Amino acid sequence: MVLKTFGWSFAITALGLVAAVLYGGWEAFGIVAILCVLEISLSFDNAVVNAGILQKMNAFWQKIFLTIGVLIAVFGMRLVFPVVIVAISAKIGPIEAVDLALNDADRYQELVTDAHPSIAAFGGMFLLMIFLDFIFEDRDIQWLRWIERPLAKLGKVDMLSVCIALIVLLVSAMTFATHAHQHGGTHVDKAQTVLISGIAGLITYLVVGGLSGYFENKLEEEEEREHEAEEAAKRSGKKVTAVQLAGKAAFFMFLYLEVLDASFSFDGVIGAFAVTNDIVLMALGLGVGAMYVRSLTVYLVRQGTLDDYVYLEHGAHYAIGALAVLLLVTIQYEIPEVITGSIGVILIAWSFWSSVRRNKRIAAAGGGSGSDEKTEVPSGV
């Protein structure tokens, strides 16, 4: 079962790691391995969401999402998008960006270094919004309750996450401007670049989130209409065909999933810039990681168990928050790639371990494996 589901992912992992060694030696091997783990970790909740929605779709639309959808995710978002980011930030053509990355690494590195403040500000704001919207949401299952409970209460204030993100951006820009001024003021204009790029990242998140919400609402409306049609048909003795039940609702599911997948792809791609600026290593690591998202989605659909490790989603979002902070810090200070890559892995491992402990407590108490946190521990932990 595991080999059948993850076979292609295992094969592509081996090819990707070999290619990394041939390209840049064992250091490149380590970076690609970190990016693989990072992408898988950040996308685990994406696979869970995908699986939950795919279960409602018929076989045709499942195949569409797992073929065309994967092509868009792997080649569009993970391979093309990093090149586009570098091209736009450095104001060069995509082909030139690829050519420089392959044939003139020093010049490419210089362009990426010059463009890094805008990349870091854009990515930092996008990732920070993902984290803030998650942490301010009131949810039944809480991992670090001493943090999440009070923040969930604060989250009832409208637009709080946007306000905090803008304050963080303003402080980052002012700090960078002060730093530049102390060095002669030759790069004061970079403060404006940080502000503009950060606002662009914020707008991108709001647009993607708005589209996701729109498709989700349309999906719910279509499901409600088709449910009513099914009930009316049953009362009148008519037969409701599977094609009718899989029509518009399935189409909106597909669109919704593509928007969601794109939004989750952003965090992986942007987070990768905190680990490396080399688009070849980035493409290898994120491409391999994206294949595991597909395999995880298929595995979760076939197994039908999505709630075994309930804290993994929390760990992934805390990793996103950490990456957001690190990206903003790298506007002014250089941070070793090992640190940026390891923090996410540690948080995911911690959340997995917490999930396993939770499951053992529930089993010991005879509570089954349900996802209701209130049945887990009588006293707040």
From TrEMBL:
One Pfam short name: DUF475
Organism: Streptomyces venezuelae (strain ATCC 10712 / CBS 650.69 / DSM 40230 / JCM 4526 / NBRC 13096 / PD 04745)
Protein name (record): Integral membrane protein
InterPro entries the UniProt entry points to: DUF475
Transmembrane annotation, as ranges: 7-26, 32-53, 65-90, 118-136, 157-181, 193-215, 240-257, 269-294, 315-333, 339-356
Key words, A-Z: Membrane, Transmembrane, Transmembrane helix
